[in-house]
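Deliverable D5.2: sample structural annotation.
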Amino acid sequence: SRWCLITSHKLYSSVYDPNEKTFEKLLIANRGEIACRVIKTCKKMGIKTVAIHSDVDANAVHVKMADESVCVGPAPTSKSYLNMDAIMEVIRKTRAQAVSLNVSICCSFLSSLSLQASEGVTFIGPDTHAIQAMGDKIESKLLAKNAKVNTIPGFDGVVKDADEAVRIAREIGYPVMIKASAGGGGKGMRIAWDDEETREGFRFSSQEAASSFGDDRLLIEKFIDNPRHIEIQVLADKHGNALWLNERECSIQRRNQKVVEEAPSTFLDPETRRAMGEQAVALAKAVKYSSAGTVEFLVDSSKNFYFLEMNTRLQVEHPVTECITGLDLVQEMIRVAKGYPLRHKQADIPINGWAVECRVYAEDPYKSFGLPSIGKLSQYQEPLHVPSVRVDSGIQQGSDISIYYDPMISKLITYGSNRAEALKRMEEALDNYVIRGVAHNISLLREVIVHPRFVRGDISTKFLPEVYPDGFKGHKLTDLERRELLAAAASLYVAEQLRSQRFLGTPRIPIAKSKRSSWELSVRLGDGIYPVAVSKDGSSFSVEVDGMKLNVTSEWNLASPLLSVTIDGTQRTIQRISRNASGETNIQFLGTVYKLHILTKVAAELSKYMPEKAAEDTSSILRSPMPGTVVAVSVKPGDMVSEGQEICVIEAMKMQNSMIAAKTGKV
């Protein structure tokens, strides 16, 4: 069957015809989870793989998975993964018959791609004409208009400077979207609501575009306020056949980058879905597209839809489409590149069940919904034991999350027969995901998927700032949840005390007194201090909190990073992130990490005599919240600055961030 397979590791078709010859060796000029994803399908198709890597990626997962690997330069992408001279040399050296590139930046390397074709090397993806046409947002918009695709009102030319940007923005009418012509992934994009923001947006967008894509051209178009972001997956061959593989809902975003995706969308009716699909196919045929690609649309509350851009690559969120259609899109791309016609007709493409994808990032969600974090994954365990879960990742325990590349840890995908089932599995998968050593956005992802607005499908690209106007603060505990957390933490504390009293199954001191069966504790959570009484009853604990008794049971495997705890019949999966000898412990509960301080009643009474360390006054210091490159300094010693004034610009993980003064003063 080509329908979605429900297995612990993958949710897409794995039926391959051994008699259908494609390529003997394929070079993958990419890294991370997408490189690993391509290698998995190549192995099943009997294709040998060659991985390229930078010097800091020598021990990366995609390098270990490939049959061969070659270093192509130092860490910066421009000197390694985007170094086409080095990549071309690897193709010749390894005699690869085909190459899979990071197509989002291929427009800079069209001559090299043409050279590959002349040397008999096949590119896994569309031809250079389609890449160039769709990679340039200005040209793609003109082509879309000619193909009778709905487009957003705006300026169709290249914006020359900040003054012209302001003039055009005034003509279109605020708000406007300033974005890189060759951009993608939210980079080089700014929303401007007035002249000042337009000038600032032009400066940052052009700098980001030049840094990320080697092309600083910008365009300006009307910003459609409060839309949905819905995209159509297309698949086309070299024989004039093209299909649309249904839609993906991608409206949950921060900084114009997707966070949660699902397929299908709760918003589209069959008529709108068909209209969007047919326009997407019309555009693909207009540029003679041949491969998998994505046509992105903005959809307003009245279901009017407007062409946004076409991505000529395998999108990050492609797994949800594979889940509901049963197609392996990497396999289809390889078949098309070899010249085979599509095996399916439009009527064959189903919507079978529901799939949800969460992008798990090494980010601190409490800072602007996700400030990048770096470090080594000291502990890492994917939730593959949860039914109908797929994890696409390119890291493992011990991997480094560095400043040089995107901070994505993985794509977590769950599948169900309906949306409620898929969301429930996602909730369980997030609770069972173990990530240590870097900050991560599990707490934000979990809050999004259980939020009433998201559950009923009431979403837009403004979901995060509307739901969290003051920024994300983590899960807000109800009284019942607070009692559950206090009971679980107190029980865990007592279980540890009992374990520490035993050695090799016998008391350390044979003449010790009889076993203790009750404990009086004081637990600090947030601004509150709560008396908690714990008594042992066989293998379970009876815990009294706020005058209410809760029964807590577990296997209490204290060596496991995951603890399944049942509290008055309700199962909860908790993770103890850290603890110290003074009673401070961090516990992940319902996705959010809570700081607790657990003391015995006597120790708590004495703790008032312990002096507290005064907090450091940092208002006179500008400290970068993340490692990065200083690309601009806007002041000099002796300058007077006011609160909110830009001091410098830091570039980290391909994004530019303006650092501002926290107060008025002299530099």
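Annotation notes: The longest strand covers residues 242-254. The two ends are 68 Å apart (CA to CA).
The annotation will be released with the project's public dataset once the embargo ends.
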